[in-house]
């Protein structure tokens, strides 16, 4: 009987305060859309890092024939086959705990398999380059990609090594931009959540004020505080539930249209978030919205509907 009464009161509140509840639902929708976008952006960064960092390699560029700015290449000659073998042995001996695999790439192989794919016919900055313009190199696969600095410290001063580069340098600026975008989105989400909390408290308090006479009568006949307050709390929770569900649906549409439907078709070498990612974060967004609404409503009503 009490449950039926509470549900009846909740339905009455919803009908009487439809405009306010719609505004509360829209604010919740926008707030949790920003939160969801922030979470998806960070999930995208994590997904890309996990995929790219597993593939990146440290490239040890060996001295070329001719002039070089590196002090290790003062002889003006590229390392001999024996010197390259000795360098590989040094890597295995001194960096066995860091380096998982060593691949030697001759300048001819680099020209055929890498350079000409990026620059057809060998044309680069108005010049046509050949294999003789390339450098021999060692490509190191690391057991832990974050240990690049250890490799650089050991090899940078070795005779015959011109430079040591980490392919992560290509990706880190991209991740930096995405991290800033995540931070901006998170700040906006925080502001909108604060607005949603304040609006929820105000809406529920105004709803209670419009039914002050009824709540006083209920108190006189012995109704408990929770029996009086629960319909108002449910009112805010329902509005927040609808708003958060809408935000999850919008995130799903954004991912389907702009990520999997467009971006993934245009740029195929990046792993992207998908509908499963949205599905995984949706319960947390919905529960978070309901919890914030319940807390805001409870605090507001405790101050307003004092026994």
UniProtKB/TrEMBL annotation:
One of its GO terms (cellular component) is plasma membrane. Residues 56-164 form the FtsX extracellular domain. Gene3D superfamilies: 3.30.70.3040. Its main location: membrane. InterPro entries: ABC3_permease_C, FtsX, FtsX_actino, FtsX_ECD. The chain crosses the membrane at residues 21-40, 183-204, 237-259, 279-301. It is a multi-pass membrane protein. It is found in: Cell membrane. Keywords: Cell cycle, Cell division, Cell membrane, Membrane, Transmembrane, Transmembrane helix. GO terms for biological process: cell division. Residues 187-303 form the ABC3 transporter permease C-terminal domain. Forms a membrane-associated complex with FtsE. Part of the ABC transporter FtsEX involved in cellular division. Belongs to the ABC-4 integral membrane protein family. FtsX subfamily. This is Cell division protein FtsX. It comes from Bifidobacterium felsineum.
């Amino acid at each position: 009987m009490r449950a039926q009464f509470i549900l009846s009161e909740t339905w009455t509140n919803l009908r009487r305060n439809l405009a306010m509840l719609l505004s509360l639902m829209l604010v919740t929708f926008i707030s949790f859309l920003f939160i969801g976008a922030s979470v998806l952006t960070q999930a995208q960064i994590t997904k890309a890092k996990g995929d790219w960092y597993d593939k990146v390699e440290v490239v040890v560029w060996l001295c070329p024939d001719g002039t070089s700015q590196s002090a290790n290449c003062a002889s003006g000659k590229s390392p001999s086959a024996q010197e390259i073998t000795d360098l590989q042995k040094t890597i295995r001996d001194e960096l066995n705990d860091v380096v998982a695999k060593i691949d030697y790439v001759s300048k001819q192989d680099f020209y055929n398999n890498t350079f000409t794919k990026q620059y057809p016919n060998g044309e680069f900055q108005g010049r046509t380059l050949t294999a003789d313009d390339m450098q021999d190199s060692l490509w190191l696969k690391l057991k832990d990609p974050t240990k690049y600095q250890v490799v650089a410290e050991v090899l940078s001063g070795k005779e015959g090594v011109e430079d040591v580069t980490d392919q992560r340098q290509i990706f880190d600026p991209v991740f930096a931009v995405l991290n800033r975008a995540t931070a901006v989105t998170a700040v906006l989400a925080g502001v909108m959540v604060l607005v949603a909390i304040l609006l929820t408290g105000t809406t529920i308090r105004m709803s209670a004020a419009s039914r002050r006479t009824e709540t006083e009568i209920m108190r006189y006949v012995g109704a408990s505080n929770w029996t009086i307050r629960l319909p108002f709390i449910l009112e805010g929770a329902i509005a927040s539930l609808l708003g958060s569900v809408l935000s999850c649906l919008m995130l799903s549409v954004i991912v389907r249209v702009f990520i999997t439907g467009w971006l993934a078709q245009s740029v195929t070498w990046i792993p992207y978030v998908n509908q499963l990612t949205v599905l995984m974060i949706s319960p947390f967004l919905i529960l978070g919205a309901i919890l914030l609404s319940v807390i805001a409503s409870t605090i507001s009503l405790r101050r307003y509907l004092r026994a």
